Amino acid sequence: MKNAIEIRDLKKTYKKSKRSPAKVALKGVDLDIPRGSIFGLLGPNGAGKSTIINIMAGLTVKSSGTVNINGYDIDVNERNAKASIGVVPQEINYDPYFTPLESLELQAGLYGVPKCERRSKEILEMVGLSDQMNAYARSLSGGMKRRLLMAKAMVHNPPILVLDEPTAGVDIELRRQLWDNVKLLNEQGVTILLTTHYLEEAQELCERIAIINHGAVIVCEDKDKLIGRLDSKEIIFKLDRDIASPIETLSYNVIDKRSISVSYSPNEQNAGDIIGVVQDAGYRIIDITTKQSDLEDIFLQMTGK
Ligand code: ADP
After folding, report:
1. Closest ligand 1 atom, CA of 51?
2. Residue having the nearest C-alpha atom to atom 15 of ligand 1
3. Which domains, and CATH codes, for the chain?
């Protein structure tokens, strides 16, 4: 199979409870995650990312559709499907009194990995925790604890690793370290699926990206193509007087009598030229602000809202 994960028409409605009404979380999601790739699942809070991951991990029951993991349909061959993925949870939960080595051995036991097949030390080396192998987990730094979580998700040697918001609330330096780790694992052949709401993270790591919003995939394509869509910036001008007649040779939106916004593509135009056009039209510029496109802008562009 070319794809590590294939999802077809996946739907999920959470039943109504005493506290909340029924909630449609997934509206028919199709996803192909190529084997050996780093794939990013992007979307704002509440988009349905965790629901997809939880269904794959067997923690949430889908309403309909099919999910195939590593060639195993989760309905037909749940055991093998589950054995094929390791999920690194978002929140740090660790056993403070165990050393990383003990933690991994314990986890391997839970997965029923025979002693002769365990690779605890090798995995700790992969995530850069060899030196801390015998230290108490509570003495590890935040980044080390996250790497220990990654290691724990890999004890049963899954070909697919799922990272749920791997760097939420993590500082820049640590984020970079974790990214290096993810890249290293991928180079060793592990398919990585990560959810994130940091565009920068997806930009740095992922070859292919799906954006989901309100339970539906609104785009799924190679990163470079998606970043291409981001080739848009906005300049807002505050002018010295009311705009009397339209400024020829410039396409802009009027914000109020003395302010306009100009959207442009930095690949094709530079800000200086646009400023020049405004000045040539006889206006003095009182103030300029610029806005870089972000994920939100792509959503706006794509959903047309
Ligand atoms: P994300 O991970 O992208 O933030 P989720 O998959 O957690 O999104 O949530 C998708 C939608 O389903 C949200 O509207 C959320 O409120 C709802 N939801 C998630 N889990 C439950 C649940 N256990 N019961 C009811 N609704 C839920």
Report:
1. 6
2. 46
3. 3-227 (3.40.50.300), 233-303 (3.30.70.1560)
